Amino acid sequence: MRGEQFEIDQIEKIFRELVFLLTKNGILNTNDVDTVIDLICDSNPQQNNFVLTSPDEKEHIVLLAKNSLIRAKTPSQKKYVDSVRNNDVVFAIGPAGTGKTYLAVAMAIASLKNREVNKIVLARPAVEAGESLGFLPGDLKDKIDPYLRPLYDALDDMLPPEKFKNFMERRVIEIMPLAYMRGRTIHNSFVILDEAQNATAMQMKMFLTRLGVNSKAVITGDDTQIDLPPKIISGLVQIQNVIKSIEGIAFVKFNSEDVVRHRLVKEIIDAYDEYKKKENGTI
Questions:
Q1: Among residues 86, 150, 221, 257, which one has the fewest Cβ atoms lying within 10 Å of its Cβ?
Q2: How far apart are CA 45 and CA 40, in angstroms?
Q3: Average pLDDT rounded to a whole number, residues 126-147
């Protein structure tokens, strides 16, 4: 009898989550249904972490991806998700491990699934490539791919392999070095610039002026980890003083409290911050 009641409870939870997703997105696809069923049926009967009861928690679901639920977890991440939904250009600035890129990719896939955009474009500066690129083995793709690997990894976490391959082949998803965006106008797309602290001031201007009709841009970076030569101005640093007052553009700052990686990552970031303050004589 207890087993039957558990099965009934699971069915109710499945329908409740599907109704929520349909209400929220206006559409349900087979991948959503399969993911909800997998998550609920695989959960521990004593502790179902997937079912959400808080309206605030539901509002900050980003994506049902493969066998996981991607959601904003910290106050800054929730502000980030809200900012992307309500603005056409969003800058996410903060240390590694705070979910800046991962959430941006998840929001891009959600926009694609919800038919808000027709394409996802992901770009990264290849600052270390420079003169040494020609000495690396392989063709141009082989040389560039290592700089783009974090973007591939995020997409691989969120899409089934066959769908990911299909999207890449059809150019529904494009991953490229930042320099390859010059001269393009990108319409109906969710565009992400990752590691933007390594974009020069001119590259940042070039990127932002690529946006076409019905496009959204998310720019992520850590302005304390700039790999550009000393005399080159980081576009991410400069832009914060250039366009901060334009309506439709939002800046979201992250700190070590938002780190969602290994617990030691937060402590490492804090230790570096304290060391830097001591070096500068501020403590």
A1: 86
A2: 9
A3: 59
